[in-house]
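Team,

Forwarding the record for the chain on the shared tracking sheet. I've put the sequence and predicted structure together so nobody has to dig through attachments.
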Amino acid sequence: MPKKATLLIVDDDRQVLASMAEWLRQQGYDVDIATSLGDAKALLQRRRFQIMLLDMRLGDGDGLAFLPECRREWPDMAVILFTGYGTAEIALEAMRAGAVEFLTKPIIDEELEFALERALHQQKVIQENEHLKKQLNERYSLENIIGRDPRMQRVYDMIEAVADTRSTVLITGESGTGKSLIARAIHRLSSRRNKPFVEVACGALPETLLESELFGHVAGAFTGATSDKIGKFMQADGGTIFLDEIGTASPALQVKLLRVLQDFEFEPVGSTKTYTVDVRVILATNEDLAQAVAEGRFRRDLYYRINVINIELPPLRERVSDIPLLAAHFLKQFSQETGRRIEGFTPEAMRALQIYSWPGNVRELQNVIERAVLLGKGPLIDVADLPPNVVASVPPALNVPSGKPLKQALSLPERQIILEALEAHKWNRQAAAKALGINRTTLYKKMKRLGLMDTGPSRRAPLSQS
């Protein structure tokens, strides 16, 4: 019979001890015994036990008084306390001291088996919670945010600098740049990491429900409010609240938010009672709030209040060097999840990923890689595995004649790129140079070197000097 669990029974009544140990071994438990606290401590130093059955009254000590030491020295071990002199008050004191169960002698076999099953189930739940917490810490740690671009390095430095303060943080950036991930990383690096992290997507809720969602309501506050509801600010007490898409907040809600951010006080909808909370507030938006203030859509005083620390996330198209890192990260993630063995990307596929403009940013890249992993046929992700809109951005391959010197061969794609930029901007040098990321003088020199001065409209009219 497979062992159910490792048990240590501590009782100075040798007859009861032997009888209990024999019966539990028959049920499939791996049992050790001790007749004193001294013997029990010696066994605990040598072996790990999942559960200890501990008599409250022993010849060399008090089992109840031993509970705090057990919690401190062996926190993973569950303790079931038993005694022949139990009262409700003693049982309550034992549970407060850390016992998972309290039994009175004589102990019925079925009652003991049930207590052991409950203790093992509680241990399993605690272990699963610890595992989930570890996964969350790993997933949202700063080390797991991918990017070596200098702008991202500055973001990392700012996160580390402000994480363990109470200052309000405003995260700005286009949709899909990872604002939620940054907010969670700030929380995980702070001293509030073991307290709640509550996220609210302000843009996903209608205005009539958002205030109730944030601050709660009392029964009868509005039609359908049949009972009291605790709001997100109260749920986040002691921890962090993340308000995404804050630019969508109504003028009335902006007034209430301003007060919360200043005094950390609010009243639930329909209530006159004021509540005070201790929360760290992180906000995010993909809107230009300064422009919204200028247009009268966002309160100026609230803007200044939330814009204490601004972390601006660059769009993916401005950090092209990070695309291979992110793509490799997502490839590994989805390959593990799906059980598919895909080794990487073909050069053509990676070129397509780096040329595409990524309007959906990192989130879009993640979805594209997931699709490629699911639909890919070979050991490498190829252009054919990418969505048509990504592939469409790749210019046709240039036919470079073989046998040409390297410098001359390299000039061919450069000439083609500059020619396409000029034609796209109707041969306006200033606009073409800006699109290419060079100045107009550099463009002029390249055009002269590559024989583009006598190409296009220049044959009919002088090139634009604008």
